Amino acid sequence: MPLNEYQAANLANWNDRVPIHWDSEDYRIQQFVSDPEYVSDAIRFDRERDELGDVAGKTLLHLQCHIGTDTLSWARSGATVTGVDFSEPAIDAASRLSSESGTPGEFVVAELDDSPNILPDRQFDIVYTGLGAICWLPDIKNWAKVVAHFLKPGGTFYIVEGHPMMWAVSDQDHGDQIVLDWPYFEAAGPLKFDEDKTYAGDGTIDHPTQYSFTHGLGETITALIEAGLQIEFVHEHRVLQWQAFPMLEPAGNGLWKMPKGRENHLPLMHSIRAHRSF
Ligand SMILES: C[S@@+](CC[C@H](N)C(=O)[O-])C[C@H]1O[C@@H](n2cnc3c(N)ncnc32)[C@H](O)[C@@H]1O
Fold this sequence. Notes:
By secondary structure, the protein is of the alpha/beta class. It has helices at residues 5-23, 29-34, 41-49, 69-76, 88-101, 115-118, 140-150, 164-168, 217-226, and strands spanning 59-63, 80-85, 106-109, 124-130, 151-162, 191-194, 209-212, 229-237, 239-240, 249-252, 255-257, 269-276. The protein is globular.
């Protein structure tokens, strides 16, 4: 499928980020290669909360897998993993990480909406995604159909993602004020940003324009239900895996939280587990 204007800009932007992320401290590529026990913060977060449960012996599809650190961490937890992403450099990096670390994984270039055409007749025990994934997708209903498409009957879907209320907060310093700068609900058009830096590493991005999309929590949950999934839980978390705005304080283990006394004011991440019952 040809990419639209927003997807094409985002692809160029994400392609530029790959070598910067590969070399960055945050993605810990060297640690992943040298320590076979190492798993990424995303998987450590889940293990501490035991939200997805045991993945050993299961097939797992990771949508928007980026450079594969989370995908291969699920492999280190016993799953047989497949990662898809529309960035060819990201998929090349993920394959390289798989071979250099001796951690098996299959990685495939596919735009999200097009991925059922790229991986026809494939279904998985688990579909996983999150942590800065769905904000790049314009249509949450279509995304939910893709999720359902890839799940075996009885299969489990799990997402852990930035909370839409967190995305709505201004990333500027407003002292102790919580200022909402961005939409909460899904809108017809995207938000446009021009940033020549990325969240990990020090390099400069040649294609700084990016388009992102907001999705309210109810819109995401309803899209999953309409796609045929049965929701098991929706958890809203008081911690976040990155410092989204200046007010957040370190919470230990690489997590961030609202300042003391205001921990209950704002959800920062959410996670949803659901299964396909048909
Ligand atoms: C922040 S990463 C999320 C992955 C993971 N949490 C991580 O940090 O490694 C977002 C990923 O979404 C991918 N992406 C963005 N838009 C996409 C689309 N329309 N189809 C497929 N992948 C897309 C990007 O290439 C990028 O690798």
